[in-house]
Amino acid sequence: MTTKTALITVPRSLDDLTFEQVLDQLALHSPEEKVTVDARRCTFATPFGLTALLALAQTRTEKPAFLPPEDLDNMSYWTRVGFFRYAEQLYDVAGTVPRIASVAESDLFLEVTQVPQGENAHTVVKHIEERTLRILTKRLNLEPRTLSGLAASVSAACQNIVEHAGCSGWMMVQSYLYKRMQPARSVVVIAVCDSGVGLRRSLEGSRRQPANSRWTDAVALETAVVNGMSRLGDPSRGQRLKGFRGYVYGHDGKLSVRSGTARIAYAPRWDDDVPLKENLAPFPGVQIQVTIPGGATT
Predict the structure, then answer these.
(1) Are strands 262-266 and 254-260 parallel, antiparallel or unpaired?
(2) Which of 111, 119, 155, 273 could form a disulfide with 267 if both were Cys (CB 3.0 to 4.6 A apart)?
(3) β-strand pairing of 185-194 with 169-178
(4) Residue among 185, 228, 180, 176 nearest 207 (CA)
(5) Which helix (H) or strand (E) holds 292?
(6) 128-135: long-range contacts at Cβ-Cβ below 8 A with a sequence spacing of 24 or more?
């Protein structure tokens, strides 16, 4: 008897907003159902898109299939930034993935990196902080204190995965010229994604958790990102997310955080994202994207 496979289509451009199209399709199928993630027509993916695809695979009971991009340049990029290094473990990837010889560490991106559980987690998180600071310093003309603070916030977000998620997660950093801004500016985009317990469960037991009233994913997001509240006796997750918000506000950047069925965003003038979305398709864990611009490009 042949098992029916559900086809999940990846949009042509995959980012923190269009990933909702993937989750809307996924919500129609139970975690036990076999799925094929079809990225053949995808021509662009942000760090959020790539890391979220890996987190998606972790949520499936049966190993999903994956159809990689048909565009050779795009396929080469996904390989170069390390996506297939992990995708080949989490998916049954169709076809042959191109192999690229190891290259020197780049000042343009920190490749997709697994944030593990276990003994070597501290070493990995420290490496992430150092590489992130190097990219921020090279690509953005911001004051050293801000750059160090941003790198430390990235490290803290990854440490949250180690301490709270209950499973490994993923992160990536990418710098590029953002032409939607006028004039165009260099930006650094940071993504940290996991498919763990999520903010609402992580914050259970907090003194700020509403008593005898609704306690939803949206309320948990606002509690953590706006108020900086963390678990009782643990000043970690909430304060660290609130710290990201401070850097975004101070430097014309953008922050989006998704957890469970809700998504919160702090968007600058150059972006038209909405502050809060509720009743989204469910997806476990916490997914963060931060965009920080540098100076104008003449």
Answers:
(1) antiparallel
(2) 273
(3) antiparallel
(4) 228
(5) strand 283-296
(6) 128/154, 128/155, 128/158, 128/171, 129/154, 129/155, 131/105, 131/173, 132/173, 132/190, 134/107, 135/107, 135/108, 135/109, 135/110, 135/173, 135/175, 135/188
> How many CB atoms neighbour CB 45 within 10 A?
27
261: amino acid identity, one letter: T
DSSP string, 152-210: HHHHHHHHHIIIIISS-EEEEEEEEEETTSSS-EEEEEEEEEE-SSHHHHHTTT-TTSP
Residues 21-70 pLDDT 10s: 999 999 999 999 999 999 999 999 999 999 999 999 999 999 999 999 99
Q: Give the integer Cα–Cα distance in Å for 207 and 232.
A: 7
pLDDT digits (tens, 9 = 90+) for 110-153: 999 999 988 789 999 999 999 999 999 999 988 999 899 999 99
Q: What is the pLDDT of residue 47?
A: 97
101: burial class by Cβ within 10 Å (0-12, 13-18, 19+)?
exposed
Helices (H), the chain: 19-26, 47-58, 72-80, 83-90, 121-139, 144-160, 198-202, 217-221, 237-250
> Which residue's entry shows tokens 């970690």?
236
